[in-house]
């Protein structure tokens, strides 16, 4: 895949691919490895090497990635869906990578045992003429969530909650203030905040800090995103969809099992009728007369259901977890159905 430079020579199209540091880091390197990519130097540099001359890797914090991809500083990125919501970045989400799953929750001190929702929190503080202080890393997401609450609308109408950072303030409703948190958010209540909106994976830290979850604001996972103008460049688009195909193969492969069985001829059709598969099982005669080999790919969730039939009808069951399942027709169809990313928000 080559284009002409300013002097008429050929150069290789490169995809600037930014990947996350931090909590999504391990899962990202794992999905890239299973997709066939070999990455070196990750311990020493923010620009690790990759075994694809058309990809230029860089490592940044996931909070920054949506905006940098949106602005065209990078063509492709992996980040958390939560940071796309928070930054309101105009990127094209190509694939849910299905790792780094988190919940964004609203939590308050356990001692407020009669408050069980955001609506009750707003109602209680309104009746007691108290201002609400909320601390979070998600300023925009939090403000939107609060403004959408019916009790907030009842008491404060369209007034914007007051958002406070060390550098600026915005909003007019000082009765509900949102403070930027720089970490250790769960340690802020009750002295420095009345509630938090924060990320949880297991909920252990919330419990240890005498807080209780009263609402799930959103659920997020790692996603593959692209710059919309990069997708309009035919050469970049082709390479981006190559990368997408490999990574989607990893995601799909984690949900499937590859099964090999030997079966007598008289049981062959019975067995085939019990086997769900992508296109249909592959059936091959064995050297022993009257015996066949059957292999197919099934959803992992179906395995326990069909295991009794396999035990009755087949012999020599071998089960593999595939590294990738490349559903190329599906990728191609998606590429055809989205010729102009700017048409889809």
How large is the count of helical segments?
A: 12
The averaged pLDDT comes out at: 89
Structural class: alpha/beta
Strand runs, count = 20
Any idea what the shape is? globular
Q: Which spans have pLDDT < 50 for at least 5 consecutive residues?
A: 6-10, 341-345
Sheet-strand content, in percent, reads: 25-35%
Strand numbers in spatial order across the main sheet: 12-11-13-10-14-9-15
CATH class of the largest domain: Alpha Beta
How far the N terminus sits from the C terminus, by CA atoms, comes to: 29 Å
The CATH superfamily of the largest domain is identified as: Periplasmic binding protein-like II
Per CATH, what is the topology of the largest domain? Answer: D-Maltodextrin-Binding Protein, domain 2
What does this structure look like?
The chain is built from twelve helices and 20 strands. With 345 residues, it is α/β, with parallel strands linked by helices. The protein folds into three domains: 2-100 and 222-253, D-Maltodextrin-Binding Protein, domain 2, CATH 3.40.190; 103-219, D-Maltodextrin-Binding Protein, domain 2; 256-320, Alpha-Beta Plaits (2-Layer Sandwich). The strands form five sheets. It has a seven-stranded mixed beta sheet with strand order 12-11-13-10-14-9-15. A five-stranded mixed beta sheet has the order 6-3-7-16-8. The radius of gyration is 26 Å and the shape is globular. The chain starts with a strand and ends in a 9-residue tail after the last helix.
């Amino acid at each position: 895949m080559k284009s002409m430079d300013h002097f008429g020579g050929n150069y290789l199209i490169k995809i600037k691919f930014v990947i996350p540091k931090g909590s999504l880091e391990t899962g990202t390197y794992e999905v890239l490895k299973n997709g066939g990519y070999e990455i070196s130097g990750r311990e020493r540099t923010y620009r690790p090497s990759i075994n694809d001359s058309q990809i230029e890797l860089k490592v940044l914090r996931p909070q920054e990635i949506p905006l940098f991809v949106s602005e065209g500083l990078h063509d492709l990125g992996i980040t958390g869906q939560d940071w796309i919501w928070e930054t309101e970045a105009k990127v094209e989400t190509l694939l849910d990578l299905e790792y780094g799953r988190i919940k964004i929750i609203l939590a308050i001190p356990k001692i407020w045992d009669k408050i069980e929702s955001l609506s009750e929190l707003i109602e209680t503080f309104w009746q007691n003429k108290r201002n609400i202080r909320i601390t979070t890393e998600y300023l925009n997401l939090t403000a939107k969530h609060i403004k959408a609450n019916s009790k907030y609308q009842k008491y404060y109408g369209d007034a914007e909650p007051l958002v406070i950072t060390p550098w600026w303030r915005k909003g007019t409703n000082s009765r509900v203030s949102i403070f930027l948190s720089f970490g250790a958010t769960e340690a802020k209540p009750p002295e420095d905040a009345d509630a938090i909106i924060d990320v949880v994976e297991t909920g252990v830290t919330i419990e240890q800090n005498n807080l209780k979850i009263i609402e799930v604001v959103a659920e997020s996972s790692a996603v593959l995103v692209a710059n919309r103008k990069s997708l309009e460049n035919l050469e970049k688009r082709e390479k981006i969809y190559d990368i997408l195909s490999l990574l989607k193969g990893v995601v799909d492969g984690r949900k499937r099992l590859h099964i090999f069985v030997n079966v007598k001829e008289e049981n062959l059709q019975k067995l085939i009728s019990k086997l769900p598969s992508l296109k249909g099982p592959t059936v091959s005669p064995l050297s022993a007369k009257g015996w066949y080999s059957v292999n197919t790919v099934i959803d992992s969730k179906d395995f326990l259901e069909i295991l009794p039939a396999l035990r009755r009808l087949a012999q020599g069951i071998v089960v593999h977890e595939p590294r990738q399942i490349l559903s190329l027709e599906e990728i191609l169809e998606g590429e055809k159905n989205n010729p102009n990313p700017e048409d889809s928000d």
